[in-house]
Every structure is written in C-alpha cells, then in structure tokens.
User: What shape does this take?
Amino acid sequence: MSARFITFEGIDGAGKSSHVEPLAHWIRARGHTVIVTREPGGTPLAEQLRERFLRDDMDALTECLLVFAARRDHLRRRIEPALAAGHTVLCDRFTDATFAYQGAGRGFDWNVLAQLERWVQGGRQPDLTLWFDLEPAEAATRRAAARPPDRLERQDEAFFARVREGYARRHAEHPQRIARIDARGPEPSVWAQVEQEVGRRGWW
Ligand code: TMP
Assistant: This one.
C-alpha cells in the first residue's frame, strides 16, 4: 500500500511550503501518483472559504467552524477519493493548524476542537506530519521579506509564540505521527531532514 496522507505544518514564515513540491517530485520519481493540496482550500467551496477566512474579521469560534467546514468538503471531495484511488496526498496544513492557531493562538477550547476533529474526520489522520519548527522572530523576518501579510500574519509575535507552543503540544500528544523538522538552517539542510524523515518510513 503506497497511498499515504502527509501534511506540512508550522508557523507562518517557517518555510514549510517550499518543501511540498520537492517532496511530491521525490515520491513521483519512485513511481507513485501524488496530489498536492492545501488547507484551508483544495476544493472550489473550500477555496472560497479560505479567501474570506484570510480577509474578514471574525471571532475564534467562527474561525474554527469555517476551517472545519472547508476541511469537511476537502476530505469528501478530494482527499478521501484520492487515497481510495491509491494516490498519495500532500497537504499544506491540516487539523494540527487548527489546534495550534485557534486552540493555542486564540485560546479556543482544546477539547471542543478534539470533538470537531472526530466529528468531521471520523478516524482519518495523516500518516505523517512534518512540523517545521522555527523561532517566531526568525519567521517574522522571513515573512517580511517574502510577501505582504494576510489577516493571520498580521498577528504579533506573542501570538506566533503561542501557536508554536500549540504545535509542540500536538507533537507531544502524537509523537509517532508528527516529526519535528528544525527549520532554522538553509533550505538544503531543511530538505535533507524531510528526505530522511520520509525515507526512514520505508513507504516508497
Ligand atoms: P498558509 O499561509 O499556510 O496557506 O495558511 C493560511 C493561514 O491560515 C495561516 O496563517 C494559518 C491559518 N490557518 C488557521 O488559522 N487554522 C487552520 O485550521 C488552517 C488550516 C490554517
């Protein structure tokens, strides 16, 4: 069975997205079909929700319900059918981001998130999550050099410090599934860790 569900996580500016296409290429080079997608997003409806989510002001509960609504559509229409067809799915962010951003960042109830997670996903979890871990100050410098900030990216450093703690908590709760990648170094050294983490699972 080569169909795997792999997700990419980390605070904004940690550099995770640069490694999604290279990993897709790496897996395809081993003869497997890969689809690349992202959250919030990945279907027409979820992409529309993403636009509003990144732009409109809203409270933490609305944020949670929007990202889980987008996730439900994404799972039903894209992720589950792809996995059922034997394709590997690489997804730029998934539910760990909801725990980190809405749970730890906004202070939303962790247990309610866990209930929503079960309700929306059933038993579906990623086979592997690559968590790109970086100091918030360094991530802010990288973001500033890369793009104008969206609504989430305008949050202060204390917010991103909490989000990072949220990822650390998820990592402690799911040590087998979540692999911590030290995102401090230059891209090739970060990629080497990605290749090592994926390679040592022996899936391809
Ligand atoms: P991106 O910049 O990695 O595409 O992610 C979009 C933003 O959405 C990012 O700031 C993190 C945020 N986000 C949440 O707050 N909760 C979620 O569940 C997801 C998937 C993303």
Strands lie at 5-9, 34-38, 88-92, 128-133, 178-182.
